[in-house]
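call fold(seq) -> tokens
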Amino acid sequence: MKRLWYYYIYLLVIWGSFRYFVRLPEVIEELWFKPVLWLVPLFWWNLALKEKISMFGKKWIKTLVLGFVVGSAYYLIFKYKNLQSFNFDANLIGVALATAVTEELTFSGFVAGYLENIRQGKWINLIIVGLLTAIIRLPILFFVYQATGNEILGVVLVALASGVINAWIRVKSGNVAGSILARLGMNLAAMG
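ret:
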């Protein structure tokens, strides 16, 4: 469990510092830097584990159905007043997809799987994933968007809830693909 906290502190410090000191277009940050900074250490850690974390199980239909249903619900909830306002932009879709893949592989895929290996079937695992998902938003909220207290609270609560739901999809199906699909729906609604 100690290695999980080391990895998370690494993410907070490195990603927070990156967000504070580096100002590149979001497309470059999300498509190039975020996957490298987040996933390379994670995959090295997985290689070092005796019991590897499998992120893509056999229940593809179940995970994709759950992901599509939850992603559609996220999209409808976030776009309920503006359903026809989607702006089709390749950069937007690329950022939404890269963010969904990177963050869901990290939290729903690896962290939820790691916690399940330690204590299988515990709701506390989902809550931990949700909290980690919510707290990692703080650097971008503070340093990039300079959000106010109510905005921060709103984003943290939504990230907490979606982190728990997406981790549940992964644990229920044994496959992170549904979590990625659900997160993509949320990202497209929030960014588009």
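The chain has a mean pLDDT of 91.
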